[in-house]
Amino acid sequence: MRFTPVSWPRLTDALADRITALAPLDGAAWPRVVVDGAPAARTGELADALAEALRTRGRRTLRVSADGFWRPASVRLEYGHRDVDAYYDLWLDTGALWREVFGPLSPGGDGRTLPSLWDPVADRATRAPYVTLPPGSVLLLDGPLLLGRGFPVDLGAHLRLSPGALARRTPDADRWTLPAFGRYDEEVDPGATADIVVRCDDPRHPAWSQ
């Protein structure tokens, strides 16, 4: 895979232009975009920048973060606070994401979506109000371990960190999650699954596969 150096602003503009031109392959009225990567890759920053860039292009967005659809602590932590397999398989409530986000934005959906369901810090429902998106609005979902789950993704961007960079940039308290990303690389191969890969070992000097 060949990577080209790029600045974050240029990358954001190029991705926003590409998203603006997206036509969902399944005929849905809402392009669905995923920014995937470990927390250390700061996927939310790119997704937020894309939302602003799309706004200036006249496109409404729905910003969703994966941790807004984590399961309650009683489920996430059933096998302990540092169970790698639970982190990989159980923390994200994929059923809720389908029900509240991807389903309403699929062909025949009504666009009535929920931006978040659960606050993992307070461990209670967010009580976020539903949002009805007009056709042409864009879903921007960010977070870790999102590819390879069968979601209808029209554009998937993976922020790639080498194992060494991931270890360096992950806080000590979260280093127990590192084996989950090794498993993700082996089972899903997000670098091959994503439409666009952004190499960001040095966050000041990203490079991307166009």
UniProtKB/TrEMBL annotation:
Keyword terms: Kinase, Transferase
GO molecular function, one term: kinase activity
SUPFAM superfamilies: P-loop containing nucleoside triphosphate hydrolases (SSF52540)
Listed InterPro entries: P-loop_NTPase
Gene3D superfamilies membership: P-loop containing nucleotide triphosphate hydrolases
Name this polypeptide is given: Uridine kinase
Organism annotation: Streptantibioticus parmotrematis
